[in-house]
Specification:
By secondary structure, the protein is α/β, with parallel strands linked by helices. The strands form 4 sheets. Strands 3, 5, 6, 9, 10, 17 and 18 form a 7-stranded mixed sheet that branches. α10 links the parallel β17 and β18. α1 packs across α10, α3 crosses α4 and α3 packs across α9. The termini are close together. The structure holds zinc ion (2 copies). One zinc ion binds next to loops.
């Protein structure tokens, strides 16, 4: 089968002819129908984040049709539409048994530490193949498995409840889902903070109040909109110390800021004014959980979460085209999301 593989960091992805993977007794072989191209993939190709063992088939946002199942598989059968939870966890270790599978001692991510979905077929354990409702296109199912799921996890970490207000810093792939999911979970007002007028327009269409950080100090703008109070929940999805600080500074008394963007610089805060003086909380969010996917898929099935404006274009399984998208992601110039349709 054809597979797009990372052979060496810093070099373009290459198309290879590889065997269709073996199917273990509790595994599922999936014919890939959609595989997202994520900013993480650009980091793996560049070597900013390491992927192994090389050569490795990338692609962790995957949806498709079950082609064949192992002898002991009961949850799905051939012909089922599925999307794939990208984190392969043991289910038994201390972290898994406490429901924090993203810290599984033997956990492994598809398209990062084992072969992913930029290929015609992929094998995953049965528990990672989640039924994809007929109403959700494969392209959306793929993207739901990464940015949307992480946005939902961040909002759950923030303990958002109905009637609260939310500010989302950065309305890229994660942020567009975060805006819609915050509203689905009952947020009264959702502020979208970004520098990009096009993204702000889409966020407004999804129900957000836009704050253009080019012309306005976002902290002052959010305070102005909320009568000086601030927001109950702020999500930082960009990965900059500046916006992390702004997220904390927009909080109301007892507000919660969740950081899900990766920064390589330390964050400075005025701990009295920004945190303890108002009993604010700063919370980290890392990945997401299998148990969060049913609610996410139900929101998408009802179109409360609509990705039709997030999945900006599709491409064939072609090395040149995919490398071009990764080049764009390296320059921060890509449209919101591109999905490979093999
Ligand atoms: Zn991703
Ligand atoms: Zn485990």
């Amino acid at each position: 089968m054809n597979a797009l593989r990372l052979v060496q960091p810093g070099r373009p992805i290459e198309m290879h002819d590889v065997p269709v993977p073996d199917v273990g007794r509790r595994d599922v072989l999936v014919r890939v129908r959609a595989a997202g191209i994520c900013h993480s993939d650009a980091h793996y190709r560049a070597g900013r984040s390491s992927a192994s063992p090389l050569p490795l088939t990338l692609g962790h946002e995957v949806a498709g049709v079950v082609e064949r199942v192992g002898a002991d598989v009961t949850a799905v059968r051939s012909g089922d539409r599925v999307c794939l939870h990208y984190l392969i966890a043991c289910g038994d270790c201390l972290h898994c048994s406490r429901g924090h599978e993203q810290f599984c001692r033997t956990g492994s991510m598809i398209g990062h530490f084992r072969d992913g979905g930029w290929a015609e077929y992929i094998v995953v354990p049965e528990r990672n193949a989640v039924r994809l409702p007929d109403e959700i296109p494969f392209e959306h199912g793929a993207v739901l498995m990464c940015s949307s799921a992480t946005a939902l996890h961040a909002l759950r970490k923030a303990r958002l409840t109905g009637g609260e207000t939310v500010a989302v810093f950065g309305v890229g792939g994660l942020g567009m889902s975060a805006v819609q999911l915050a509203r689905a979970l009952g947020a009264l007002d959702v502020f979208a903070v970004d520098l990009d007028a096009d993204k702000l327009r889409v966020a407004r269409d999804y129900g957000a109040i836009s704050v253009d950080a080019r012309g306005d100090d976002p902290v002052a703008a959010v305070r102005r909109y909320t009568g000086g109070r601030g927001v109950d929940v702020a999500l930082e999805l960009i990965g900059l110390p500046l916006t992390m600080r702004q997220a904390v500074q927009t909080l109301a008394v007892q507000g919660r800021a969740v950081v899900a963007g990766l920064a390589d610089e330390p964050l400075e805060l005025d701990t009295y004014r920004d945190l303890l003086g108002k009993e604010a909380e700063l919370i980290g969010a890392n990945d997401h959980l299998l148990q969060e996917l049913p609610l996410l898929l139900e929101f998408a099935r009802r179109r409360v979460l609509d990705l039709s404006r997030v999945v900006a274009r599709t491409l064939p399984l072609d090395a040149g085209a995919v490398n071009g998208v990764l080049d764009e992601l390296d320059r921060f110039g890509a449209p919101v999301r591109t999905v490979i349709v093999p």
